[in-house]
Amino acid sequence: MMPTRARSITWLHLSDVHLCKPRTGWDEHRVLRPLLDDLRGMQSEHELYPDFIFFSGDLAFGNIGTGPHESIAEQFDDGHQLLESVRRAFVPATPQENVFVVPGNHDVNRRECSVSVTSWLDGIDDVKEITRLIQTMPLDWKH
């Protein structure tokens, strides 16, 4: 009897789109449309379908002003639309619960960070200490 072949797990990893129509929107179509076409081709030509989609940082560009698409919230709305397009590029669509986003440094709303908190974090250079703070001081870490 032949052994059963194990099913592999496939994932798609994307990062660093830096969506911000005033800054990057002028050539967005030159990057994002071909990406979606490539993803569709990946499935049709190679039968590849991601079980998971990971976006690891810098979906947004960051707050740059108060004009249209300059707020980080609007950039995340555009990012949501992009990730929806990516997951729906496959048939069937990758389930939404299998899409994971890890924030990058551009994804932080710096207006919510005080100088004192930034200085405090800059003074910690021990990874073990940061881990301890996350685990034992959730209110301080939230700030």
Tell me how many strands there are: 3
User: Uncertain segments of ≥5 residues (pLDDT<50)?
Assistant: none
Give the biggest beta sheet. 3 strands, parallel
Which structural class do you get from the secondary structure elements? mainly alpha
Helix percentage: 40-55%
Number of alpha- plus pi-helical segments: 6
What does this structure look like?
- With 143 residues, this protein is mainly alpha-helical.
- It has helices at residues 21-24, 28-46, 72-88, 115-122, 127-136, 138-142; strands spanning 11-14, 52-56, 99-102.
- A 3-stranded parallel β-sheet has the order 1-2-3, with no helix packed on it.
- Strand 2 (52-56), helix 3 (72-88) and strand 3 form a beta-alpha-beta unit.
- The longest helix has 19 residues, at 28-46.
- The chain is flat, with a radius of gyration of 19 Å.
- The termini are far apart.
Provide a brief overview of the structure:
44% of the residues lie in helices and 9% in strands. The protein is mainly α and 143 residues long.
Task: Please specify the SSE layout and strand pairing.
Layout: E1 11-14, H1 21-24, H2 28-46, E2 52-56, H3 72-88, E3 99-102, H4 115-122, H5 127-136, H6 138-142
Which descriptors apply to this entry?
mainly alpha, three-stranded parallel sheet, 3 strands, 143 residues
